[in-house]
Amino acid sequence: MQLPSSQEIIDDLAFFDDWEQRYQYIIDLGKALPGLPEEARTPDCLVKGCQSQVWLVARNHDGRLQFDVDSDAVIVQGLLALVMAAYNDKTPKQILDFDIDQYFQELDLERHITPTRGNGLRAIVAKINGLARNAVH
């Protein structure tokens, strides 16, 4: 299953009446991610600053950054799906130009996740933005 776009996710989440339904939708998005094989879960791929373990593998394919991600926590896997909808298979410029703060605000996400999950989410975004900046130079 291909992930919906970031705008489709915003629209889909607005459809639900309560956050329990929204959490389930986010978890289901995470289940759609292929994950990583065990041998790709190396210390080099771990994202620092996340409470849960999060692995991120990036590659540049014809000028677009593609990411494989995985987590040992179901809700974090869902949060990774939200980030992938915004960033995966985009050019470094598109990644750097994307207003992730506005996206999270439209999702009303940070009011509904713990501060440590929010910090982890920021660490993932910072890692991807750093990779995009390096790919530009």
From TrEMBL:
- Pfam families assigned: SufE (PF02657)
- Give the family per the record: Belongs to the SufE family.
Q: Which residues form the signal peptide?
A: none
Which InterPro entries has this protein been placed in? Fe-S_metab-assoc_dom
| Name the UniProt record assigns to this protein | SufE family protein
Query: What range(s) does the Fe-S metabolism associated domain occupy?
Result: 11-129
Q: Where does the record place a coiled coil?
A: none
